[in-house]
Amino acid sequence: MYYQPEIETASREEILKIQNEKIVKQVRHVYDNVKYYRDLMDKKGVKPEDIKSVDDIKKLPFLTKADLRDAYPYGLLGTDLKNCVRIQSTSGTTGKRVVAFYTQKDIDLWEECCARAIVAVGGTNEDVCQVCYGYGLFTGGMGLNGGSHKVGCLTLPMSSGNTERQIQFMMDLNATILCCTPSYAAYIGESLAEAGYKPEDNKLKAGIFGAEPWTEEMRRSIEKSLGIKAYDIYGLTETSGPGVAFECEAQAGMHINEDHFYAEIIDPDTGEVLPEGEKGELVFTSLDKEAFPLLRYRTRDICVLTREKCSCGRTHVKMSKPMGRSDDMMIIRGVNVFPSQIETVLLNEKYPPNYQIVVDRVNNSDTLDIYVEITQELFSDKVSDTQAREKALEATMRTMLGIGPKVHLVPPKTITRSEGKAVRVIDKRKLHD
Ligand code: DLL
Question: Which end of the chain is more exposed for a tag (fewer CB within 10 A), N or C?
Fold first, then answer.
């Protein structure tokens, strides 16, 4: 089943034709309206007329998270603010948030992408779609909510957390499709078992899980505990949110919505475009966004693209699960966290930059522990002093990161000094196959 069969199963030639038409208009739109990018193009000596088809995209300059930070908040806006109807946001490097703007048309297209993902897992207007991605600034809740409406599902806008209530609604209102992060899906599965339910007691048939890395092993375990088929969905705030790519019934890679996003794989060190099938960093050009039209945005996600024929009949190129990142961003409980954000808080709070971040996954839920060395002056024998400092630092970290870490203040000179690069992060989770 397809949401937009014509475009989802269009021939390669038809898709290329659409992309070629859109890129010419989009580059003109950006050049005329986004001074920041116009300056980058001028610096590189590229004019809009040089871009005649998607083959010419490689002539354009890249955009990175650092550009988003420099241009924050309005510098990459492609239209008057009065035409924008919403923002969504996520954390960025060194604490500056990524703020993405949307016109009503941008939202419609984004929600259509999410609708494609829901129909791809068998969703129809007879389904009850329980959305427990976070609502609000995070794109997960709002994106899948909009997609679910478009498909005509009865939508349960649960947002994340309050697992007891999630289970109550799931069981009482016969939810058939579950949308959340894979780790939360696993947690819901465990909680259902603890509450005495067997997998066949719920009416769920499919889950749409993404926003963080997860393995095939985890897929099998979620499928077993919930009695469903579990599908992957990918996206990022910068390109609109979830639905840039989604899995179909083949459960073997995610179809990229190529009529809206042009994908390239580059060598993260040289920026050179790699041939299809090679592993590298994923770069997206949005082909029709009005408000936040990013060209050649470097996602930092490492993956592989393939054009092998898919049994589902969709023709759009597929991306593998992200296999890692070319920067140091971690995704903890679905929230993007940069070590530099943690360091910024420590320095602002007058702690020395001697710290270690330990990330683990216990009972399918991520843990974040931050060990911070205190200076001789801050050092106190009184346990209550240390505990009060830890609590204060945890609160500041929570505000900065959007998730609550456990802070451990440790005596001076107890964190191992490294002779080369400091080992700031120890990630004990097994996130990739
Ligand atoms: O995580 C958007 C989203 C919401 C996707 C709900 C899927 C479902 P950001 O918070 O901006 O946006 O984080 C984007 O998350 O660059 C990847 O590193 C990672 N990511 C997203 N989906 C997947 C996935 C949302 N399916 C960053 N597998 C991206 C692995 C993913 N990593």
Answer: C
Ligand 1 within 6 A of CB of 242: yes
Burial letters for 75-95: b for 16+ Cβ neighbours within 10 Å, e otherwise? ebbbbeeebbeebbbbbbbeb
Residue range 85-324, CATH number? 3.40.50.12780
Domain ranges of the chain: 85-324, 329-432
Convert the pLDDT of each residue in 221-271 to its tens digit: 899 999 999 999 999 999 999 999 999 999 999 999 999 999 999 999 999
The domain defined by 329-432 folds into GMP Synthetase; Chain A, domain 3 (3.30.300)
Task: State which ligand 1 atom lies nearest to the alpha carbon of 335.
Answer: 10
**Which residue puts its alpha carbon closest to atom 4 of ligand 1?**
140
Pocket mutation for ligand 1, best pick of 137, 139, 240, 337 (most atoms within 8 Å of C-beta) = 139
What ligand 1 atom has the least distance to the C-alpha of 138?
A: 10
